[in-house]
Specification:
The chain is an alpha/beta fold. It is 35% helix and 24% strand. It is built from 7 helices and 10 strands. It has a 6-stranded mixed β-sheet with strand order 6-7-8-3-9-10. Helix 6 links the parallel strand 7 and strand 8.
């Protein structure tokens, strides 16, 4: 039986020390399979972003176990974590975080170029270009390939950010409020894109949102409450 794309057991995380310490995660358990789309709901300060930081290997838990596709994240050194972020994880943020001096196509290609520069990829630039073009087409933004981010709409930039998150064929996509700056129509389109791409790319998607109505379109709804995931 295949390992879950994400498996976390007993994740705990506190910030500060001594009497000033604040426990944000109090023993989080979650398991997601490839192709599964989960929406994470919860009030501000409930630990949603902290959970994404741990799942994305941008921070380390104080306690607990995290496995990505069967790989023990706790056993990885800093170089191993950086490689896992590049190869196994895709990130989409509330603000698209596209680099304004590069075109949409160049932004999508950026993770692949970084991987190749660090000797982490065996693909050629031509192969990466084909992959990027395919992703742009699947998201309906091929016509934007030569435009700069400032020449596109918010919804278009967020689709470009989704394409960028997929260029390395990650097994897990982490999205932090990706529709927070979009109107309802564009937000619904982005949710639909995530659900479709989770299945097409066989990736687990963890999407943090405050939008209850859109969250209902996910395969699962997970709620953060006082440091626990329910």
């Amino acid at each position: 039986m295949a390992e879950p794309a994400v498996l976390a057991r007993g994740l705990r995380k506190s910030y500060g020390s001594g009497a000033a310490a604040v426990e944000v995660l109090r023993g989080v358990d979650v398991s997601l399979n490839a192709g599964e789309f989960a929406a994470v709901l919860g009030p501000s300060g409930s630990g949603k972003s902290t959970l994404l930081n741990l799942l994305g290997l941008m921070d380390r838990p104080d306690a607990g176990e995290l496995r990505l596709g069967g790989v023990d994240a706790g056993a990885l050194d800093d170089a191993g974590r950086a490689r896992a972020r590049n190869e196994r994880l895709g990130f989409v943020f509330q603000f698209d975080s596209l680099l304004p001096e590069f075109t949409i196509l160049e932004n999508v290609l950026m993770p692949a170029r970084i991987a190749r520069a660090r000797g982490l990829s065996a693909r050629t630039p031509a192969q990466d270009l084909v992959r990027a073009e395919t992703l742009l087409d699947s998201l309906g933004i091929t016509k934007l390939r030569a435009r700069f981010p400032s020449q596109t709409s918010g919804g278009e930039r967020q689709r470009a950010a989704i394409a960028r998150s997929l260029i390395q064929s990650p097994s897990v996509i982490l999205a932090d409020e990706p529709t927070g700056n979009l109107d309802r129509e564009n937000g619904a389109k982005v949710f639909a894109d995530f659900k479709r791409l989770a299945r097409e790319k066989n990736a687990a998607v963890v999407l943090v949102t405050h939008d209850e109505s859109q969250a209902k379109t996910a395969d699962r709804i997970l709620r953060m409450d006082d440091g626990h995931l329910r």
